Records
---
Amino acid sequence: MRNEMTLEFLSVSENESLARVAVAAFISQLNPTMEELTDIKTVVSEAVTNAIIHGYEENPHQKVMLSCAIDGEQIEIIIKDEGKGISNIEEAKEPLFTSKPEWERSGMGFTIMENFMDKVDVTSEPDIGTTIRMMKQLTSTRALCN
Amino acid sequence: MSLRVEFVTKENVLVVRLEGELDHHETSKLRESWRDQLHQNDVDHVVVNLEKLNFMDSSGLGVMLGRYKEVQASGNEMIICSISPEVRRLFDLSGMFKIMRLVGSESYALELLGVASCEMK
């Protein structure tokens, strides 16, 4: 079965929990394991936090767009901002890299996204914005395919 | 679900008990109050009890690393205890336990830090 949802919210940190809870509620129709649910909540939190902190540099008047689609047990999550963009994506993806060390950022956001999801695509253009597309196949389907 | 924080001082050890969800939104308040506790109270070591913390992302890791560095810079120790499986995945992935010590219970962590009596509330 295919299903999808979209959500648009202001770039304020209060909405980080809204985003991950909304996605968790949406994918719960697939009966994910606790571990899968935690992984998905974590990556949504990472991507939305990146949009708020790095994309919009904490400007609370901008908007973050989130969409989530399920097709069978395949999950696709897209998180998009129209902020300042990432000038060097490969550098941003490196573990422990952060452009804001003074803010005690761990620099682990992309590493977590890439480890908890099957696929992470980042497209970004300076002053246009950043889109993160993440895919994950739930385990029960994998077991059937094997 | 938001974050609830409880600070308890046991001899020269600050016990930080976190409950709920720790994300970027919660970090600034937590960082501020944690720093205040470290500076105002006469404490050396820190025990972080994560038993009731059911969600954390990399923003939380940043706060943990920040406090760890402060405590370590003064020659003291920070121990993590009672971590849930969900939060542990994140710590393992980030290699946090290569630098921080993890133990099973708050009472054992306090014992390791030399706190004589450690009756739990």
---
Amino acid sequence: MKRLLHLSLSTAAVLGIFAVAVKTPSVAAQDVPNCGTEPITVRGYFETGFDLPFRLTEEFSVQYPNVTWDISQDQFANLINATPRLLSGDNPPDLIRLPTLVSFATQGLVMNLDTYAEAFGWNDWPVPQLNQNRVAEDGTRGAGSLYAMGLNYSLTGIFYNREQAEQIGMTEPPATLAEFEALLAAAKEADLLPIMQWGSARSGMGLAFPLQALMASVGPVGPINDWIFQTPGATIDTPENLVAAQHLQDWITNGYFPEDINAIEYTDAQARFGAGEGVFIFNGDWQNAGYDASMPGNVGFFLMPPAEEGGSPAAMSAPLTFGIAANAVNADCAAFFLNWVATNEVARQIGVDVGGSNPGGPSGLEMPPVAEGSITNETLAAGPVVGEAGTSMDFIANATSAIFAQGWTPELQEMVGGLQDAAGLLQAVQAEYELQLSE
Amino acid sequence: MTTSDNRPAALAASRPTTKSKNARREAIIGWLFVLPALLMYAMFVLLPLLMSIQYSFFRWNGIGPMTWVGFDNYTRVLSDPDLLGTILNSFRLVFFFSFIPVALGLVVASVMHRMATGRLGAVSRTVLFLPQIIPLVAAGIIWGWLLALPGLINELLEAVGLSALTRAWLGDFTWALPAVGLIGVWVLLGFCTVLLWTGMSKLDPALYESARIDGASWFNEFISITVPLLRNEIGVCLTVTVIAALAAFDIVYISTAGGPGNATAVPGIQIYILAFTEQRIGPASALAVILTLLVLVIIIPIQRLNREIK
């Protein structure tokens, strides 16, 4: 679940960094909020299992020795549950990993960052980067005041096992959905597992990845983002999405996924893919370091191809969202840190090396170098493709805080078990969505 | 301290006797001993219970203002087929968490009582009781591995030629609930066995001796002596295990988190998701109150039956 939820907002933008004209950020050096020179302790609340924020804070203290960190951490599921109470408590963390944004922003629990955006010149950064973390007064996302920043901007797609892909005759990534489906059939024919994916309720149903990729391959991304951003009247139950869900159901009945998918945890799926089980896996660039380690030189990446020849590939992409508590004691220092992460050379290098994703920041900054042979080269190269096409999406699991646990996961598991069909899946999830929004 | 000298005359006239004075003093001392535990109980059991009842009548996200909604949350919970399905699942779990451990526990304890009296008995009791002291989180993870498709249980089935039966037990719509139940049997069997064995050790051996002289078999002894005389212990076992089944959370959350679909979803899991993931404290509290009532409705007859038989 946590990986899925990692993807919050759209990245059409994030990656739009590359498409936007080079512009130097204008930051007045002396007036901007900072961490001062007196010793201070900044409190953080991070997600367990993700090194990036921890490594960044370590480096930050090296560069600014007066700052020490007091960091608590939790697994993602616990993080979701504890965040409202932590933010509304007497002593909230200064810097916090935000699993979802809208409810905390509308409840006044996270700080409005507009003043900082002004002071640091964030408003001059490529527009979509920030828009993903904006919330309007009516609770719609995508425009309005800024409530969070991304530590980096992840991208999803299809990773593949090079040796096995060669075995089924894949010489270059498929250009259309039909070509991709032919490869899946070829893999099945060759007695290989076509797609490794996770699907236990504990990890959260990983079939949401291929489903959303199919949705964006078959139809436009706009309505999907509307649904995720809770635009009034938005529905997931559209004719295009029905076609997408039918493709997924076919994949399931064709035996393209492991038969025990409903019991596979996220980590087990990665281990099994790394050990050679599965030609393809739908996942995001946060797993890059893991794939580099488990299958060095043998892993490739491509974006989900469009259904129509000559169409644009689409991807789920989202910032690793961090915010500042509304009552934070060291808000200035936390904001300074968020700015530093995107602009400091060492920090950006850590962002790429450890996080595996685009570090964002002002346009015109060079992308930090990546080790030769690392899969990160391929995922970073794929970013601008989606950025230019404007086909990035937030994740359907992030539409509401419980839509994943109460909607997608059980319904997709039932589809695997033959108890749910494509139409029923979309209807059930839409009903759950409306129920949750009515609360 | 008040002395008798400055008491009003009327009170002085009805001054209690030394005996009852002592009794009262003892009662006060008794209460003082109980007080710390009572305070804790009030703070961590009674108060949350009352607060849950209060919340169940409100619409509240846990942070903002609370809105009175009367019985809305209850009607909502009782009309949601998914939530009612979780209650049905918890009744299915009663079979695994309660009936099997108690029945099997009786047999195992009886065999131990009769045959394994020395070191062997002590060792087997320890082994059976071990699941009680292993943290359930660790146990749940280990069971997850054992029951996985590439896990030991499927390997064993394959080794004995039953490869047709292999499956991802915790991911199978038909078998996930029995598989979770099996973990419950593993956890609770030791508890029941040790409790029942202790009860058996207190039974008068003369009863068994006379039965044996009359030519009673092990089975006859078991049915006519052991089970009737252990009614009290069986009652305790049933009470504890039925509560464990109806209020199950940890075993289910660690092994399947309610999946696949809602095949193993129990009220405990739904309460957790409603309250913490969805921030819908009202319906979560209403479901919790309903669950508490349900447990009472089932446990009170067991208790009463137990008492009447005694």
